[in-house]
Design a protein that fits this description.
Helix content: 40-55%
Number of domains: 1
Structural class: mainly alpha
CATH class: Mainly Alpha
Number of strands: 4
Strand content: 5-15%
Oligomer: single chain
Largest sheet: 2 strands, antiparallel
Radius of gyration: 21 Å
CATH topology: Butyryl-CoA Dehydrogenase, subunit A, domain 3
Number of helices: 6
Order of helices and strands: EEEEHHHHHH
Distance between the termini: 29 Å
């Protein structure tokens, strides 16, 4: 909405009715067969000026605040802690807990989960004091998404061939179906593994996030 100054100072934040003429949503089917993300196409879409959020040309300021929350949520530290304990249970039940190299990988993961939780607390502390925490939130996104991929990979390794059947419905809460692998506790592992491949791409790819962190933190 303005060509003066830096590019980001000319951005305004408007809400768009997804039912507006010219808006087309195309679902993207993920590797696990589910649909969680979409392509959104805008063809000569008109948006009323009264849909403006806040002040004109302050859109990037508002977007940074939202991005900080988004990247903090993507880290999903609570789930990481739950899945870590689940990984330990699977490793013990499937007999790989006695493998020292496998236990080393679990120990490394646990250290990183604790560090991730500390980063989350730093972001929350910065947010309550009114400081810009976008750079730390970028770190959260990087580490959180990589942790998600690591625990899903380790659970697949622990489950072995019994984790291979792909039963996407097993990821749904309350699922009570039959599982070809036998142990229903292993049922969601393959779907979770494939689903987690997207985490290092969405919410700002990790390669881009590393550049942002380098520019804002290292200079």
């Amino acid at each position: 909405t303005s060509n003066e100054g830096k590019p980001q100072t000319g951005i305004s934040f408007l809400l768009i009715d997804m039912k507006s003429p010219g808006v087309t949503v195309r679902p993207i089917k993920l590797m696990d067969g589910g649909v969680e993300v979409n392509e959104v196409w805008f063809d000569n879409v008109e948006v009323p000026a009264n849909n403006l959020i806040g002040e004109e040309n302050k859109g990037w300021t508002y977007a940074k605040h939202l991005l900080s929350h988004e990247r903090t949520n993507i880290a999903d530290v609570n789930r990481a802690k739950r899945e870590l304990e689940r990984l330990k249970r699977i490793a013990k039940s499937e007999g790989v807990w006695d493998d020292l190299r496998f236990r080393d990988e679990i120990a490394k993961l646990e250290v990183d989960v604790v560090a991730l939780e500390m980063l989350v607390l730093r972001v929350l502390a910065a947010s309550t004091s009114g400081k810009n925490s976008l750079d730390i939130a970028g770190l959260l996104k990087i580490k959180g998404s990589e942790i998600q991929q690591r625990y899903s990979e380790l659970m697949m390794l622990a489950g072995g061939p019994y984790a291979l059947p792909l039963v996407r419905e097993a990821m749904e809460a309350g699922w009570q179906g039959d599982f070809p692998g036998g142990d229903a506790g292993l049922a969601p592992l393959a779907s979770t593994y494939f689903n987690m491949r997207k985490t290092t791409i969405y919410g700002g790819s990790n390669e881009v996030q590393r550049n942002i962190v380098a520019q804002t933190v290292l200079g």
